[in-house]
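# nightly structure sweep
# worker-07 picked up a monomer target from the shared queue
# config: single-sequence mode, recycle default, output format = structure tokens
# input follows
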Amino acid sequence: MDTIGDLLIRIKNSYMARRGETEALYSKMALKICELLVNEGYIASCEKKDHKIKIVLKYDSSGSSMSRGEPAITGVKRISKPGRRVYKSKNLLPYVFEGMGVAIISTPKGIMTDKKARKEGVGGEVVAHVW
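# output follows
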């Protein structure tokens, strides 16, 4: 089972349904991606509970008290899939919406954003784009 694809789609679907939180299957990589999304400000928090990850979603607070406002994530796209892995060198790392989004990269130094990978001078597997 593709736990990363499942995680990203659960987050996207929960935002579309305006839910406050969601759960996804646990894997070390999925937890690292959630922590990265928290650091980038796309989700409010995440924590491991049993064999699942509890994710609290984040919304723009400019709406009225009755509505949740705009979702922090407007789209996600899984790039590297189990059947077709996509690797990029440090010089060819993608820019997501001209820097407005982030690419999640799995490098030898761990999971990081495209910006941090460029700064560190490493390439790797392009896991997903988030905007």
